[in-house]
Amino acid sequence: MNIEMIHAAAARLKGHVRHTPLLSSPFLDEIAGRRVLVKSECLQHSGSFKFRGAWSALSALAESQRKQGVIAFSSGNHAQGVALAARLHDTSAVIVMPSDAPALKITNTRAYGAEVVLYDRATESREDIGDALAGERGLTLIKPYDEPEVIAGQASVGLEIAQQAANMGIDQADVLVCTGGGGLTAGVALALEADAPGLRVRTCEPDGFDDVARSLISGRIERNARTSGNICDAIITPQPGALTFPIMQRLCGPGLTVGEEDAQRAMALAFSRLKIVVEPGGAVALAAALFRPDQIAGETVICVASGGNVDPAFFAQTLTEFG
Amino acid sequence: MNIEMIHAAAARLKGHVRHTPLLSSPFLDEIAGRRVLVKSECLQHSGSFKFRGAWSALSALAESQRKQGVIAFSSGNHAQGVALAARLHDTSAVIVMPSDAPALKITNTRAYGAEVVLYDRATESREDIGDALAGERGLTLIKPYDEPEVIAGQASVGLEIAQQAANMGIDQADVLVCTGGGGLTAGVALALEADAPGLRVRTCEPDGFDDVARSLISGRIERNARTSGNICDAIITPQPGALTFPIMQRLCGPGLTVGEEDAQRAMALAFSRLKIVVEPGGAVALAAALFRPDQIAGETVICVASGGNVDPAFFAQTLTEFG
Q1: Nearest-neighbour CA in chain B from A111: distance (Å)
Q2: Is A111 exposed, middle or buried (0-12, 13-18, 19+ CB in 10 A)?
Q3: For chains A and B, what is the number of CB pairs under 8 angstroms?
Q4: Choosing among B273, B275, B318, B321, which should be mutated to test the A contact, i.e. which has the most A CBs within 10 A?
Q5: What pLDDT, in 10s, does the model give residues A52-89?
Q6: In this structure, which topology does domain B3-49+148-322 adopt according to CATH?
């Protein structure tokens, strides 16, 4: 991983990904006690930043390999990003999803044109199914985060933040990123290291699923005790990635964590003050900016709202309770 | 009104208004049967395009006049736009609002720093109250639409659409605009006449409140039978403006209308497919694009999502029923 790879990915993404706006509201500034800028990746194609990494990985393949098709394991945003990027590259995607994944996510992934292969979490191994399919059909596996071209694609979020901050005269800020496996976080950190060294990335995770925050403290990869049972499903992973962790260790931290209710409060405020739809896992960075002000320094905080793929019923309930 | 005034307003707005994105989704294209592009003015400062006209009007005043303060009558988006623009110009705003206006809108207008003067719709005249206050304090009235500098400010939406369409190679399209008094509609039409003559503005109104559509047919100003009783409150006005109508008559039409349920369906689709929050009156153009395909020609339709200031409870109910 280096900045040349990131620039090469950005060149391939140009004209295909959305340059997402950096939104703000005086009401949010007042809550946080400082200026809050929100990089709205929920407005990205497929509803999350994952489209960037998927496009980067697909566009980096040799034409002959790409036309054989790609495969991914995911029940969520990576599935939709890969499915849409494959369709726009005029190739096929197989997405291996657990049969108990939310119906909406299965429907959406199919609607983007992907072939969805369901498996039983209890009795089947998705890796075995994937390996068999990949072997039979010559498919290329697109990993969700521990893959250099994926990290390079997500890094384009950081290049845009660096440019947007410079246009506003900002050269010092904490940049809060919602962190799962660390692909977005590591990518943004590398881009900022090169283009805006005064902007420092802080990881944001749900309380109780803070594998990255703990790993940054201990200096080695720590695991979560559980990988389910939190509304922030998009960013719940067993542990930081083997490629992403060393990058985060060098450039990021200290990590921040927030509770589920604070994530929902941030969703309701993003609704009322920014007019954007953010999913729970995409709202933890904004939640940290608003509700952990004493753990942040400086006059400006930039946070990434990383995705907006949330069920209408859950969103309605969040507005009813926290709106 | 001429294009020079519009360019002068755009120069004053530069760096102060958001250049809002033109969003899209393959799911919406499929429903509409053509490419749908959504100019997301709900992401504008203060949650609607009204901030543009307010900024234009305030910035056009002489410094000595501006520092005396401004006044506006409005229970909604114009109130918030004027209040925020006044605050950012470091001057004061008085907003005359009916005492039965939604509590949230009163709270927001105050939170932007405006002085809210409430009146009783049944027994008091807002004009008398406004005239008295304006006289006493030397305040300048900022009208919501029938004011050249306000129209020139709203026109910047059209300049941006022209540029964004050109970047995508689009030179022919219907441009659907949510129409109340016609300030946004007339402004966009003038900008497109100059910069993108192949883009034609069509007005969009709620069923039963189609004063502009009927006026475009009859060739003279027609009135609505009622001015309340529809969820699209932001665009319910008694009749087209004296300044805006001749512009719309020359450049716009034929008008489109949609029912309340279609507006809510469009809100739910903007939520799930674009991840933006649109209020009922801001959703009628998208509703027309999606649900009146036989009344639209061509491969591409551009619609303005003009505002997103909607109560959480109403939004939650819309998602529950139509999500």
Answers
A1: 8
A2: middle
A3: 78
A4: B275
A5: 999 999 999 999 999 999 999 887 899 999 999 999 99
A6: Rossmann fold (3.40.50)
